[in-house]
Specification:
The complex is a heterodimer of chains A (244) and B (306). Chain A is of the alpha/beta class and 244 residues long. Chain A has helices at residues 41-49, 71-76, 94-102, 108-117, 122-125, 136-148, 167-183, 195-199, 218-227; strands at residues 2-10, 16-25, 30-34, 56-61, 64-65, 79-82, 155-159, 187-191, 203-208, 211-217. In chain A, the strands form 2 sheets. In chain A, strands 6-7-8-3-9-10 form a 6-stranded mixed beta sheet, sandwiched between helices. Chain A has a 4-stranded antiparallel beta sheet with strand order 2-1-4-5, covered by helices on one side. Chain A starts with a strand and ends in a 17-residue tail after the last helix. The two termini of chain B are 30 Å apart. The chains are: A alpha/beta (244), B mainly beta (306). At the A-B interface, α2, β6 and α3 of A face α2 and α3 of B.
Amino acid sequence: MLELKDIRWCLPEGDEILKGISLAVPDGKLTVITGPNGGGKTSLAKIIAGLYEPCGGKLFLDGEDITECNITERAKKGVAYAFQQPVRFKGLTVRDLLELSAEEKLTEDKVCSLLGEVGLCAREYMNREADSSLSGGESKRIEIATVLARKNAQMLVFDEPEAGIDLWSFTNLITAFERLKSGHNRSLLVISHQERIMEIADHIVVIADGKVKSQGSREEILPEILSGNTGAKCPLGKTVEEVC
Amino acid sequence: MNEITGQLLKMVSDWDGGSFSGAYNIREDSGCAGRQSSENIRIENKADNPGIVIKISAKAQKETVYIPACITKGGVDDLVYNDFIVEDGADVIIVAGCGVHSDDEEESRHNGIHRFFIGKNARVLYKEKHIGTGKGKGAKRINPVTDVTMGENSYMEMDTMQISGVTSSDRSTSARLGAGAKLVIRERLLTDGNETAKSVFDVTLDGDDSGVDLISRSVAKGNSYQEYTSVINGNCRCTGHSECDAILADNGRVNAAPALNAASLDASLIHEAAIGKIAGEQITKLRTLGLTEEEAERKIIEGFLK
């Protein structure tokens, strides 16, 4: 289980972006964090992965305080993170990245299987460089595959996985998420605005203006979001009251 | 062939310790440590200069010839002239490469001057690795000169790599292409410490529909310095592309100067050059996979030069 207690994060110039976030991501469950743009969701994901250092609060993974752990240490403890904006590499192939993720050489079949989960025809991609010759959607899917390849990771964080990918691949992604949480007892934290992802969530957390506006089971929160009663701007674009 | 030559051959020629099959000439400390011709590839001494003439007949198809040069001690100043005469329609793989080893204080150098005369419709894959080894403080220098004349519809791919340990290298490559000829050059270069490396390419496209694609990838670490100069001259309906990508680490420096000269309305020439440190986001991404910062940097450089 991942627990965040009173997490705060400030810009270098002092503006407070996250204003005391507390939440829990239970094992074997899919938790969706949603909320309006600029509310602090991506900042929170980067704090979990160790890319940003909080200016206050604590993070616990299975009861262990990981607040002071750096990016590498968190990865070794089982935190995996799919970037919202995938990173391009000149020279490293798609297969190289997947093997680095898996920490072992992968068979062609295994590479195909991983890429197939994100809707890529594997044999066309496995030896391609993960560089700017790939489209945004292709890079995004490969980024997600690098997290799926992390067999020892227990806490998987996806930052807007739906952005830039086509409907067919998105359907595959939903299936992959369902399989991950049910088959491997992994915890999934997905930052998303997508109703279809929220529909498979166990828990939903709404963050706006750097604070948790509401959280609870899908059954409790999703209707609130759809009706605009979360106290936040509706992430699905419906008219709701302003919260800031 | 001495033991050090054997070790160098494993690095520059992927030698497995057995015997070379087919044609080969092994140069060791300015002498010949072994030579064999094949039915389709004849290797002879040059009459006017130190070096060899390699005659590749049209019957050679996907045949390989090995011509590595090794220097195994300090105080050697090796100069060799090798001519490759590739008949019309031949298809050959040439594995060159040079290793300079020194365990003493004296400087050693290899100056290899290669001329290629490539016939019509012939295909050449030229593979060359350079490396310096040994604990000696004497400089290890490699200065290759390559001059290529390509006949109609011929194809040549040059795959060159300087791995490590070469104190200084000064490479000069020139080529003239006839109608329909294609030249592909892939250069990879790694320098560290106080090493210097200079690469000059000068390609002239003289025949309609000829083309060159030149990509140089390099990494300059430590206090090393690299210079890259490419000139593509388009005198006809042709295509030319040069790309220089360099990664800087520590106090490494790179000077890249690509140039294009178009002397025909139908010449289509492009150059690109990018120099910079490893992007921080690349290191961060690999760290999220569990690599340390040092491991991430090493992987990125390995991949870049692969």
